[in-house]
Design the sequence.
């Protein structure tokens, strides 16, 4: 087949671009992907016990944009979910993002929301120019909570010290002074009912799209 477009990478960006070119503009598209699967970092698979595993770390989908939700709904049904995450810190299971209950449980306080705001004000590090993920957190909650909750987790998750990560990475996780324990507050919070991989299969299932796996554009 002769192609109109070559797309490198079958993650969200490449797959959606391929689908749009194929279905809306009737273009012929070749997608090359260095890994042995599509889906990029969102890839998931069922293990031998039937457990759905997110190979590159947990991915939960959320958006406030109706058109994004409707677009992807062409390719999957959904589980509607709210993410409530607890982390084990100093032997205590506490909510993340940090909220009133997190601080009260960790330090044994009985703060109100206003008292928690004062606590953050007292402990935050004043930084005039925030340049990385460590800065963004210590400027909101102070170094102790940063060390307890963010540092090791972020380093494990991204394989980088938070100092070497853009401020937006940790900055997108809210810090709350109320008791809301939802991870995010977006209108649409969902997971593909049969996993991301099935969703990607459907996105890329078009006669104008061919995929070559295990093909590195740089080699
Ligand atoms: C641990 C972790 C957790 C995350 N959690 C969330 C989450 O919960 N919610 C959320 O919205 N986002 C999350 N993200 C971010 C999300 O994974 C990315 O925003 C999304 O995958 C970006 O899609 P992409 O297509 O731009 O890139 P990718 O998914 O990285 O896809 C790029 C693809 O290009 C391929 N590629 C690269 N170079 C070449 C080459 N030279 N030749 C051939 N192929 C190539 C790669 O193998 C890869 O498959 C998370 C990311 C990580 C790492």
Sequence:
């Amino acid at each position: 087949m002769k192609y109109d477009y070559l797309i490198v990478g079958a993650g969200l960006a490449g797959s959606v671009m391929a689908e749009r070119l194929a279905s809306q503009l009737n273009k012929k598209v070749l997608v090359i992907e260095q890994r042995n699967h599509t889906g990029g970092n969102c890839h998931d698979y069922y293990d031998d016990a039937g457990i759905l595993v997110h190979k590159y770390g947990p991915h939960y989908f959320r958006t406030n944009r109706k058109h994004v939700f409707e677009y992807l709904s062409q390719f999957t049904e959904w589980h509607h979910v709210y993410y409530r995450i607890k982390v084990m810190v100093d032997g205590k299971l506490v909510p993340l993002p940090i909220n009133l209950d997190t601080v009260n449980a960790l330090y044994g306080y009985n703060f109100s929301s206003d008292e928690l705001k004062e606590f953050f004000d007292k402990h935050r590090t004043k930084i005039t120019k925030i340049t990385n993920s460590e800065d963004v957190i210590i400027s909101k909650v102070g170094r102790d909570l940063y060390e307890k909750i963010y540092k090791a987790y972020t380093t494990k998750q991204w394989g980088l010290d938070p100092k070497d990560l853009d401020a937006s990475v940790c900055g997108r996780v809210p810090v709350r002074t109320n008791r809301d324990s939802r991870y995010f507050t977006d209108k649409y919070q969902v997971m593909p009912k049969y996993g991301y991989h099935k969703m990607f299969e459907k996105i890329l299932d078009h006669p104008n799209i061919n995929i070559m796996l295990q093909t590195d554009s740089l080699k």
